[in-house]
Write a structure and sequence with these properties.
With 226 residues, the chain is mostly beta strands. Helix content is 9%, strand content 29%.
Length: 226
């Protein structure tokens, strides 16, 4: 039997094709395989320090993004270097997989602008960077900048994934991202499938009672290099 093409049939087959394509795409992705630590506090106290550039908490769990199947935390147990030796703690705590807010879980870095850098050991396609500076209290870290590169000195081929330095006090350019309160969710930063081996994270103190920089854990999600 011969069916005469109609506009309705054309629309139907187009929608069916899109549905099949969407189903195939869904099979090639998984939810981001990140496990969050237990919250150390609930909500944001009304007396917590803020500012014009600080975004308000969502008040609900963050949506879980989809990532390519095979995505893992490439930073786990990887080597970490820094702009200066820590004030207290060892750099390997940043990629040891322990991210709960407890004594001894965070590396304390000296005041002013400091950075830590993770060597993923191979250039890989990256989906997200997830960082916990210090979530024992809802503090706000300043000049949070996350960059990736294949150059360990970060001179050439540098891609900035996140920058909330609104006044360029870090000297790395004016950032358009917002400052935020630290929570057990950490800060999830999209890497947009950039290929890189090194991840460098800057900060310049916080609204905590002392001027130190802190890192509890950094996870870098991507596809292992083949």
């Amino acid at each position: 039997m011969f069916f005469k093409p109609t506009r309705e049939r054309a629309v139907f087959f187009t929608l069916a094709s899109l549905a099949l394509a969407g189903a195939a795409l869904a099979q090639d992705t998984i939810p981001l395989p990140a496990v969050l630590p237990k919250p150390n506090f609930i909500g944001t106290p009304s007396d917590a320090p803020a500012g014009a550039n600080v975004e308000k908490p969502l008040g609900r769990p963050r949506p879980i993004p989809q990532v390519p199947k095979g995505t893992v935390n490439l930073a786990l147990k990887k080597k970490v270097t820094a702009s200066k030796a820590p004030y207290e703690g060892s750099l390997d705590l940043i990629t040891d997989g322990v991210k709960d807010a407890k004594q001894g879980s965070a590396v304390e870095m000296y005041p002013k602008l400091q950075w830590v850098q993770i060597d993923l050991e191979a250039a890989s396609e990256l989906s997200y960077v997830l960082v916990w500076h210090f979530h024992e209290q809802p503090v706000v870290f300043r000049d949070v900048i996350v960059q990736v590169s294949n150059d360990p000195k970060f001179v050439e081929g540098v891609t900035t994934l996140y920058n909330n330095d609104a006044d360029n006090s870090a000297g790395l350019g004016i950032g358009k991202d917002r400052e935020y309160f630290e929570t057990s969710e950490g800060r999830l930063i999209a890497a947009n499938k950039v290929k890189a081996r090194y991840v460098r994270l800057y900060s310049r103190g916080s609204t905590y009672t002392d001027p130190l920089n802190r890192y509890t854990e950094v996870e870098v999600y991507g596809l292992p290099s083949k």
